[in-house]
Input
Amino acid sequence: MRASLALACLMVMSSCGRSEPARSAALEPDPANVVPESDETAESRGPVAHRASPGIEVEGEVGGLNQEAVDKAVSSAERDVDRCWEQGVARNELVAGTIQLVLGIGRDGRASYGFVQQSTLGEGTMQRCMLGALSARAFPKPVGGKVGVVRTSFSFDLAKDTRAPTNWASTQASSVLASAADEITACKRGTSGSFTATVYVKQVELPPPEADAGDAGEDVADAGPTFAGAAISVGIAAPDERASAAVECLERVLSGAVYPPPGSWPAKLTFTL
Output
């Protein structure tokens, strides 16, 4: 399914052991600046795409990228992206959702930066694996700017015969956000913008409290087991490429946090940090 170029987004469907991955490669700047010719032609033209006045050539920060070459580069990463998903499912069979990766492509056609801009997969190791798989590809060189921007999305269904987790509202994270507020703030220090977290939560039985001597101890024993929620896996989406350290810090905090008990079957929730 192909979207309008006015949206600067190309949607491509392919398959490989998962749901049909909706893959988009969005180019910046606007479609008017997308370069239609081959890589070789683009390279021979050089990086100049705009002329301000006769004899004065201006290069912008963001350049255009050859659409066909971008599609080819993204397609070449699909097998490795699938492998990342399979490895993630081996750790957490409940993983499913979408992920949007953003790469900055330097003048050499290689990724100069990359980050997870959006994700509901909820598995940080998997997300970094996918980002690494895409970043390793050779892309066309940007024309008319110092860097080209590629946005690519993948979608994954639950593994076959897997029951979906309970879908929790974001309000279920309120107790975690309150109890871990200081740690979350520390992780985000030096960054700007919002992070999005997706967490899978399982129920765990808490150890019984130490009983006092006498009747009070008997009352505690008769109260029965108590439960809480613990993270199975956590994935974070970042506001920009400068937040990688904050992402890993937030993953550690949320992985060790105490959640409401989900009951007999795990739950999944997505919330903003």
The chain has two domains: 5-156, 166-272.
